[in-house]
């Protein structure tokens, strides 16, 4: 049996004959065999996931996502622990490219419901624009960075924009200690700051190897008749669609787009002009308003306040009560004196439940200020900071 095994390893290129019944093993034998074993387990996991989901996907279309893989868009078919001894997780995606993908997502946070549509790409280890800005401000101010110095350096910047740079520095400090902060809040930025950031990003990529964008929490079937702006609508209206395979999930998405288009025609949001289909220029905004009006009516009965629609360009002020998940994404419920409204949500708001917030509604985003602007505002105005 040992001789037969040695000959098998020889055929695999992992052992070399050195005489009659004598072989020398390659130094990589153990790691190669372990990788092959792990890959075999992964293929079994993918096959089981596809079978349980009732999807007929040939094994030759199975792919294991690695550091050289291109970004992939697909629906979540299965999820689980990639390392039973730790916190690493995996997702199995049914891709629009017609392939099935196994992705080790490390310790990434999120629930990722079955059927939801995600975009996966390898995490970047390069400094972000925010890091370059910090380095630029520090280089002009003797290696120091603060919100005051940032606003002095760039008068067009806002207080909330500068605060994002502070949060980035705080995250790096807590994780690696690569930056230091004085007691007065000023940050000490070393000349090799961008190299330190690269080291931080490489460490981060070990625990979170992929960047995950949730394109829709709804399955494509649920999106077909959703009275809300959906991922399918963006494919139809903005031609965001990547190349769709003629088989597998790519075929399913194409079929869903055709059915969604017919639903939009029935709703008078699109119309046929010969062989072409013409859509209203404000179709996504109309769908968003319809969704929020319906949700606002439901919440009004729950909290006992009337719903008031936030208009683009309007200043929104009030108490942030909670976030609300919708078909098109997440919104912040802001309670005013006699009414409430729903506006785009940001993760940073979760730390400020029941606090006063204010900002300008730009339709798809808002730069929030926490606290009242008068009588003890948490956030100083830009004019006051520059003067200081």
Give a brief outline of the structure.
The protein is α+β, with helices and mostly antiparallel strands. Helices cover 37% and strands 24% of the residues. It has a six-stranded mixed sheet with strand order 3-6-5-4-7-11. Strands 16-15-14-17-18 form a five-stranded antiparallel sheet, with helices on one face. A three-stranded antiparallel sheet has the order 8-10-9.
Q: Can you tell me about this structure?
A:
With 388 residues, the chain is α+β, with helices and mostly antiparallel strands. It has four domains: 31-125 and 209-215, no CATH class; 129-207, Arc Repressor Mutant, subunit A, CATH 1.10.10; 218-277, no CATH class; 285-386, no CATH class. Helix content is 37%, strand content 24%. It has helices at 2-11, 29-52, 129-139, 147-153, 159-176, 193-207, 220-224, 231-237, 248-266, 283-303, 382-387, and strands at 15-19, 22-25, 62-64, 72-81, 89-95, 100-106, 117-122, 144-145, 180-181, 187-188, 210-216, 270-273, 276-279, 315-326, 329-335, 340-344, 356-360, 369-370. The strands form five sheets. Strands 3-6-5-4-7-11 form a six-stranded mixed sheet. It has a five-stranded antiparallel sheet with strand order 16-15-14-17-18, with helices on one face. A three-stranded antiparallel sheet has the order 8-10-9. Helix 3 crosses helix 5 and helix 8 (231-237) crosses helix 9 (248-266). The longest helix is centred in the N-terminal third of the chain and has 24 residues, at 29-52. The relative contact order is 0.08.
């Amino acid at each position: 049996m040992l001789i037969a095994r040695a000959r098998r390893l020889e055929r695999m290129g992992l052992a070399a004959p050195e005489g009659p019944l004598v072989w020398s093993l390659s130094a990589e034998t153990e790691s190669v065999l372990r990788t092959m074993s792990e890959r075999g387990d992964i293929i079994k996991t993918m096959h089981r996931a596809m079978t349980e989901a009732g999807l007929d996907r040939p094994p030759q279309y199975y792919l294991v996502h690695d550091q050289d893989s291109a970004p992939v868009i697909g629906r979540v078919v299965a999820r689980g622990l990639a390392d039973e001894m730790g916190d690493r997780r995996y997702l199995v995606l049914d891709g629009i490219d017609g392939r099935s993908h196994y992705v080790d997502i490390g310790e990434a946070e999120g629930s990722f419901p079955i059927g939801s549509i995600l975009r996966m790409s390898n995490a970047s280890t390069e400094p972000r624009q925010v890091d370059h800005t910090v380095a630029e401000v520090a280089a002009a101010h003797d290696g120091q960075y603060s919100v005051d110095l940032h606003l002095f350096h760039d008068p067009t910047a806002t207080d909330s924009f500068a605060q994002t740079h502070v949060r980035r520095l705080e995250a790096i400090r807590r994780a690696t200690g690569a930056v230091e902060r004085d007691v007065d809040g000023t940050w000490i930025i070393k000349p090799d700051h961008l190299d330190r950031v690269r080291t931080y990003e490489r460490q981060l990529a070990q625990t979170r190897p992929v960047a995950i964008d949730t394109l829709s929490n709804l399955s494509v079937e649920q999106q077909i008749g959703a009275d809300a702006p959906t991922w399918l609508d963006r494919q139809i209206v903005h031609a965001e669609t990547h190349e769709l395979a003629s088989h597998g999930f790519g075929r399913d998405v194409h079929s869903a787009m055709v059915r969604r288009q017919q639903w939009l025609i029935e709703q008078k949001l699109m119309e046929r002009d010969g062989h072409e289909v013409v859509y209203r220029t404000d179709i996504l905004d109309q769908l968003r308003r319809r969704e929020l009006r319906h949700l606002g009516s439901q919440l009004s009965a729950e909290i006992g306040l009337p719903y008031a629609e936030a208009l683009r360009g309007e200043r929104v002020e009030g108490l942030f009560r909670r976030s609300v998940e919708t078909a098109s994404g997440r919104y912040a419920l802001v309670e005013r004196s006699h009414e409430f409204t729903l506006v785009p949500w940001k993760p940073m708001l979760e730390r400020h439940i029941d606090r006063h917030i204010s900002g300008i509604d730009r339709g798809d985003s808002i730069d929030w200020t926490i606290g009242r602007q008068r009588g003890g505002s948490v956030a100083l105005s830009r004019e006051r900071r520059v003067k200081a």
